[in-house]
Amino acid sequence: GKDKLTGELAGKSGYISGVQCLSGYLSQSDGRRAAFAILVNDTGKIAQGGSAKEFHERIVKQIDRWMARGK
Q1: CA gap 45, 42 in Å, rounded
Q2: What are phi and psi of 41, to 5 degrees?
Q3: Is pTM beyond 0.85 here?
Q4: DSSP result, 7-65
Q5: Angstrom distance (rounded) from CA 24 to CA 48
Q6: For residue range 10-49, what is the model confidence (pLDDT) as tens digits?
Q7: Are 37 and 25 in contact (CB under 8 A)?
């Protein structure tokens, strides 16, 4: 199944001319918040089987895990 985040995500994605971005905040229930901005350039050159969206998701999950350990 899909990994669920321990924190709450508020984000916005965007795409223009081969660049995909995701930026936003991950908030924990104790009030801590992490801001992030992820930009993937030349998305047409991503290795077969991968995607910028999957890359964005993996980074957000890592930030969430890092924040969950810091409680």
Answers
A1: 6
A2: -95, 155
A3: no
A4: SEEEEEEEEETTEEEEEEEEE-TTS-EEEEEEEE--GGGSPTT--HHHHHHHHHHHHHH
A5: 27
A6: 999 999 888 899 999 999 999 999 999 999 988 776 665 5
A7: no
